[in-house]
Amino acid sequence: MQLSKRLGAVAGEVMADSCVADIGCDHAYVAIYLAQNSIVKHMIAMDVRKGPLEKAKTNIDEYGLSDQIEVRLSDGAKELKAGEVDTIVIAGMGGALITKILEESIQVLDQVTSLVLQPQTEVPAVRRFLHKNHFMIEKEIMLIEDEKYYTVLSAKPGEQNRFNLVEYEFGKYLLEKKDAVLWEFLKNQIDKYEDILDKLMKNSKNIIRQEEIKETCRLLRLGLLYYEEDSKGEDNCDRNH
Asked: Keyword Methyltransferase: yes or no (predicted)?
């Protein structure tokens, strides 16, 4: 099984010899990859939709992995029992849905030792949820595929010092290691929002929206300060506003 760059990054964060539930498995590509490469002891591939789950079953059978991957119809993690797995993978959903699924399954969450999450949106909310629910963010990967940016978070149970606003927004470890993909993202976002702000200043009297865009630019600029040696003089978002 050849995975996309995004799913490959997700699979790469699963620890060897884990028992894993892939929630929202879609066609079970991650589950198949992990089982095929003998990375996990056991997989449960779960999805709320019957159509994708039937396709997942077909794919699993084609790879001869039905004895290693259990397929389960489930709304989030509701059909998962506490202690059944030590690792939960959720990839390709919005951040709000990911946190909702985990919040509705706190008893299951209390028994896992690893979370691998790839939210499509609202990544800061996922970071905050993890801290609120006593998980440490161990690692973050940011990548670009098909001109879209993705973040993969790995977390384990434990307490961690809270991040500041910018670190929740963009990822403490990505900022501290001066991640190249995050830098590109920050620069692109500054260009985007600077252009929006210019147009608003010229064509709109919506002061509230202008202030919102200025605040977004401010956060982006603060993110770039972590790259100060590399980006000195580059950032001029809302400089003239």
From this structure: yes
Q: Record the pTM.
A: 0.91
Task: Enumerate residues 6+ apart whose C-beta is below 8 A from 89.
Answer: 10, 14, 20, 21, 22, 23, 30, 116, 117
Give the max Cα distance, the chain.
Answer: 63
Sheet order of strands, 87-93 included: 69-73, 40-47, 18-23, 87-93, 114-119, 148-157, 135-145
According to CATH, the topology of domain 5-162 is Rossmann fold (3.40.50)
**Contact present, 79 and 12 (Cβ < 8 Å):** no
Q: What is the DSSP letter of 121?
A: S
CB 108 within 8 A of CB 74: no
Give the whole-angstrom CA distance, residue 49 versus residue 76: 10
Encode pLDDT of 126-169 as tens digits: 999 999 999 999 999 999 999 999 999 999 999 999 999 999 99
State the Cα torsion 80-84-89-90 to the nearest 10°.
10
Give the integer Cα–Cα distance in Å for 108 and 112. 7
**Residues 212, 226: Cα–Cα separation, whole Å:** 22
* Domain positions in the chain: 5-162, 180-231
* Residue 117 per-residue DSSP state: E
| Cα distances (angstroms) measured from residue 213 to each of 111, 115, 117, 236 | 41, 33, 28, 14
Number of residues that this document lists for the chain: 241
